[in-house]
Amino acid sequence: MPLNPRTSDGRATGTATPRFELAHIGPHVDDGERAVAELRAGLGRSPAHLPARLLYDARGSALFDAITELPEYYPTRAETEILERHAGEIIERAAPAELFELGSGSSRKTRILIEAALERGCRRYVALDVSASALEQAGLELVAAHDELSVRALVADFASGLAHRAGPGPRLVLFLGSTLGNFRPEERRRFLKQLALSLRPDDRLLLGYDIVKPAAVLELAYDDPAGVTAAFVRNGLHNLARVGGEPIPLAAFAYEAKWIPESSHMEMRLVARRDLRIRLPNLDLHLDLAAGEFLISEISTKFTRESLARDLSEAGLTVDVTFADRAKRFELLLARPQG
Ligand SMILES: C[S@@+](CC[C@H](N)C(=O)[O-])C[C@H]1O[C@@H](n2cnc3c(N)ncnc32)[C@H](O)[C@@H]1O
What we know:
With 339 residues, the chain is of the alpha/beta class. The chain has a domain at 58-213 and 304-337: Rossmann fold. It has 10 helices and 13 strands. Helix 3 (74-94) runs parallel beside helix 4 (110-119). S-adenosylmethionine is lined by residues 52-53, 56, 61, 64, 68, 76, 103-105, 109, 129-131, 134, 157-158, 176-177, 179.
């Protein structure tokens, strides 16, 4: 690995350590044809959707981290509990030569798995995320904490990153934080198929997913009284204005988190307080919203063990084992490609 890490497109990361490297793969957050096509497709839906990549700039990643600390936001604590109890068994079963994490964010929970992996001689961690700032901070902290660990950080979207392979040997793919729940059903199916195709027979997938529960618990988890989730979602709108090239009156939107039982998802909405026209000259686009109409900033699908096993099986994946937290709020499963 290089002494002065540079991104693959030649830009220096500004940090130097022989065991940490950061590379850009595919389109960036606010340029690249695919990024713009994704934005247009989302905004063209009814109701309009903001793509997730607009939510996770440096400020968005920091706000997401703050959300994970909120008392109402149970998923991170529940998933951490499962990892603390079962990391050794997970690593034992998967026997990886490399941990490869999709949507790694701060990699905070991953540290538990990294420590278990190091004990078994697995020293490679590849982290992929659209947020370069989160990757850089996490990567540097990790190599500082673990002398034997090499970290390769990929600034990439899921589609560009899946094809990337850093080294030989079995890989344990990590997809934590119920990020799978942020996909729409058709996107989820496409993504799972692509993921299954990227796996070799010895590779394994560790998937964290949130379980269906009463609406009141879910709505509080996604609309905390301190307003951190609302700030996270509004930051997406701020980024839309930046990419679109004209200010958006943020105060003209109210934040609402709603459980939609028919599709088993939480919907994070930005509701127009009055009739609004959003102009996005850089995209040659405008959006008209009547008072009460909303944009969807993100969804978070909640699963049952059975519903998810069906999706995985259709994609070509078989569940080996499932782990739950003590309060049965959240689960992790280990899956393999079908023979
Ligand atoms: C729900 S957070 C989970 C973060 C972390 N894995 C955890 O469990 O706390 C989703 C993560 O996926 C990243 N992300 C969102 N959309 C992405 C995309 N299209 N491609 C790559 N990463 C993406 C975000 O930057 C963020 O770090």
